[in-house]
Amino acid sequence: MTRHDEALRVPATPAGEEIHLPTQSPLPLITGVALAVTLVGSTFSVLLSAAGGLLFAWSAIRWVRETRSSTAALPEPDGAE
């Protein structure tokens, strides 16, 4: 066995923390569609653009609130680096 093979067999150190993944949500899709409707509406109709803008504002605010509440539930780091 070569020295390189021995280096590959050293066990990995344990992970310091778990990776946080957000919950599944339709809000990113709704926000994207609303933005597209707003942009398309700007060439066709002011009402379509306004409706898309309102939907965009609602979904973006809701998405930010959901993200903030999920990250607030995470444990605080212990400060050891």
Word description of this protein:
- With 81 residues, this protein is mainly alpha-helical.
- It has a domain at 45-69.
- It contains 3 helices and no strands.
- The longest helix has 27 residues, at 46-72.
- The model has no long low-confidence stretch (mean pLDDT 84).
| Overall mean confidence score, pLDDT | 84
Strand content: under 5%
Oligomerization status of the protein chains: single chain
The helical percent reads 55-70%
Summary?
The chain is built from three helices and no strands. The chain is an all-alpha fold and 81 residues long. The model has no long low-confidence stretch (mean pLDDT 84).
Relevant terms:
81 residues, mainly alpha, 3 helices, 0% strand
Write the layout of secondary structure elements.
Elements: H1 3-8, H2 27-44, H3 46-72
Helix pairs in contact: 2-3
